[in-house]
Amino acid sequence: MTPTDPASPVAHRRGEADVTVLGTDGEPLANTEVVIEQTRHEFAFGCIGFDLIDHANGTADERHLAADWLGLFNLAVLPFYWGMFEPERGRPDTARLQQAARWFGERGVRVKGHPLVWHTVKAGWLDQLPTDEVERLVRERVRREVHNFAGLIDEWDAINEVVIMPDFVNEPDGVPNSVSRLARELGRVEMVRLAVDEARASDPGVRLLLNDFDLSVDYERLIEQVLEAGVRLDGVGVQTHMHQGFRGAQLLELADRFGRFGLPVHFTETTILSGNLMPADIVDLNDYVVDAWPSTPEGEARQARELEQHYRMLVGHPNVASITYWGITDRGAWLGAPVGLVRADGRRKPGYDALKKLIKGEWWVAPTAVRTDDAGRVRVAGFAGDYAITARDARAELTLTTGSSPARVALTPAEAAR
């Protein structure tokens, strides 16, 4: 297998190991042909799984979309917007999302929840309550979701868009926003502490992110203050919805800036358009409303080029732990924008193929037949992640880490492995 090239821009993602393969009898499997194949990336290539929730629950047939989704991604984000998850108090959508999380997990996909606390799309019934009651219910909500999804979801956006959270005074109906009201009373840092502490109380091993679209110094200052206050985060979430154009080199600058805290940087919400761009003078993306926003041949070619640039740059940056694309399909996409990798009618765009050539091509080890040496050793090299080694009707699993290391694996008969 091809050894790691130290000059490669993704060398830090790769590993190699001299693996001693033990047969089913426990002895080294010498001078035997084995097949090595990659089964999962360590790097999180994510996408929202919203479109497959009904399919996972057997209430819709999305098998073609599911196949396209699973052909690229290894991290699914499921929606926990409180106002949609529990529009009627006491009737959360727990069972349906648990089944969706199980469906992804059974297919080797990690699942992330988004978000536990947010002032937008929050439960409307919360607004009429006094602030102390709101705080109690927010705390209970965080504990409940993390507890109910323990073992199914191992990562959450603990709190979303805290930089502007205290400033949302009123909803359009004039009723004060209860979560923003609580954020003003507690302050941003204590609001983050609330979300993180309650989540860890339910699952001490859960991974928790702070997530925001405001990538100014205000966000940097908030992260500093949160960490100085002793609140433990597991990563920094950076949103990059590029409805107004590709950000190019700014992406690397963001990875540098937000990586200085010593935490993994997660590009949590990525969108790249395959149609006309939103005018540059729009400040709040939600304010741009059009009757139709089609994908175009020119836009699709541009999207494919920019997707490849985006992923090459960020996978090549050592601070970045994940990239999550915000929608595989144009059908029902946020703001109606043509951001998907497949069109509304299910046909793949060039951008899908461009990503697949990277994730499951250039950065992937396809089934490869090699022969062990006299000591039963074989070299495994590739992107860090999970691999399978098979010989005849037996199989072993290997987790390849970055760098170079020895390893031993024992083959198990295929029937026992199942």
Q: What would the keywords be for this entry?
A:
418 residues, alpha/beta, Immunoglobulin-like, TIM Barrel, 8-stranded parallel β-barrel, 5-stranded antiparallel sheet, 12 helices, 16 strands, 31% helix, 24% strand, globular
CATH topology of the largest domain: TIM Barrel
Share of residues in helices: 25-40%
Full CATH superfamily name of the largest domain: Glycosidases
Shape: globular
Radius of gyration: 23 Å
Structural class by sheet pairing and helices: alpha/beta
Provide the spatial order of strands within the biggest beta sheet.
3-4-5-6-7-8-9-10
Termini separation comes to 28 Å
Would you state the CATH class of the largest domain? Alpha Beta
| Number of DSSP-assigned strands | 16
Percentage of residues in DSSP E strands: 15-25%
**Architecture per CATH nomenclature, i.e. the level-2 architecture of the largest domain:** Alpha-Beta Barrel
GO biological process, one term: xylan catabolic process
Domain GH10: 59-358
Keywords: Carbohydrate metabolism, Glycosidase, Hydrolase, Polysaccharide degradation, Signal, Xylan degradation
Protein name: Beta-xylanase
